[in-house]
Design goal:
The complex is a heterodimer.
Chain A (H helix, E strand, L loop, with lengths): L5 E6 L4 E6 L4 H16 L4 E8 L5 H16 L3 E5 L3 H9 L2 H4 L1 E3 L2 H6 L2
Parallel strand pairs in A: 2-3, 3-4, 4-5
Antiparallel strand pairs in A: 1-2
Helix pairs in contact in A: 1-2
Chain B lengths: L2 E4 L2 E7 L4 H15 L4 H21 L6 E9 L2 E8 L29 H8 L2 E7 L2 E9 L3
Helix pairs in contact in B: 1-2, 2-3
Classes of the chains: A alpha/beta, B alpha+beta.
The complex binds adenosine-5'-triphosphate and magnesium ion.
The site of magnesium ion has 4 residues of chain B, from helix 2.
């Protein structure tokens, strides 16, 4: 089921996409954060996190996503999310994440809106 | 193991170990599906259960390291009782767990969201907590 922890990275010249698969908890969150910070170190300031294959996220996973938003903000970068379920989007809006990061229906739109 | 204790209840005991909250969420999904809850409602139920379980894991300091979840199938909805035998807390003046880094934006704080998420996703939430532990009761109503 959805518990296979995995992260795919698609790094282009201007931006990079990180796609998660499985339950976004502390373990997958730390893995994601490490990859995101590596990309930021390399100079990427436009990141997309695609959560299409992540059916469930817990609050610890979300706290790590907020850390990534903050790390990008320090470099004046932008994080765009895509592939959220209706419940995930509602939660992100409640937590003010939607104010500091973009939320888009799919990867193409997320990339087009930096 | 899940054991049926009457014809409208299911009882599950999980150890406080990584990912065991998913066992509680999966079982909820099976039960909610059998009651014809929508996919979106099932996700809301799963998230609320996960947050209740990880709160017990993280904060309860329960010596038996177990969480008991009771699933009650009612005609008007699905009720859950999540219990631990830990130290308890006061829902009014709870202390939020801090992260090492301060929050950049106070409105987008990093921790202290679990209970708020539970309240937002369920139709009613009741917390009973004391020195013998904590029980969160919550209901997802069948919408007509
Ligand atoms: N089962 C429990 N036993 C003891 N204390 C609890 C329990 N559940 C919650 N608490 C207390 O209530 C506080 C708030 O819980 P809440 O889930 O809202 O936030 P959090 O767990 O600190 O952070 P987050 O859920 O965002 O990861 C906790 O920090 C803890 O002090
Ligand atoms: Mg919590």
């Amino acid at each position: 089921m959805a518990n296979k922890l995995d992260i795919q990275i698609r790094a282009e010249r201007q931006y990079a996409v990180l796609e998660t698969a499985g339950y976004l908890n502390d373990a997958l969150g730390e893995k994601l954060s490490k990859k995101a910070l590596e990309l930021i170190e390399k100079g990427y300031t436009q990141l997309v996190i695609n959560l299409d294959k992540t059916a469930l996220i817990n609050s610890i996973g979300i706290s790590i996503l907020i850390e990534i938003i903050e790390a990008l903000e320090e470099r004046e970068g932008t994080l765009n999310f895509c592939g959220l379920s209706a419940t995930q989007e509602r939660t992100f809006r409640m937590m003010a994440i939607a104010k500091y990061a973009g939320i888009f229906p799919d990867e193409k739109t997320a990339i087009a809106n930096f | 193991m899940a054991t049926t204790i009457s014809n409208d209840q299911v009882l599950l005991t999980i150890p406080m170990r990584p990912d065991m909250e998913l066992a509680a969420a999966q079982l909820a999904s099976v039960i909610a599906e059998s009651m014809s809850f929508s996919e979106e409602q099932i996700e809301e139920i799963q998230v609320a259960l996960i947050e209740s379980c990880i709160n017990a894991f993280e904060h309860s300091q329960s010596p038996d390291r177990q969480v008991i979840i009771k699933y009650i199938m009612r005609t008007d909805g699905l009720e859950f009782e999540i219990s631990d035998q830990g130290v308890g807390f006061s829902p009014e003046n709870r202390t939020q767990r801090r992260t090492s880094k301060p929050d950049l934006h106070p409105e987008m704080r990093k921790r202290g969201w679990g209970l708020e998420i539970i309240h937002a996703l369920m139709d009613s939430v009741d917390i009973m907590s004391g020195e013998n532990g904590t029980t969160i009761s919550m209901v997802k109503s069948k919408t007509v």
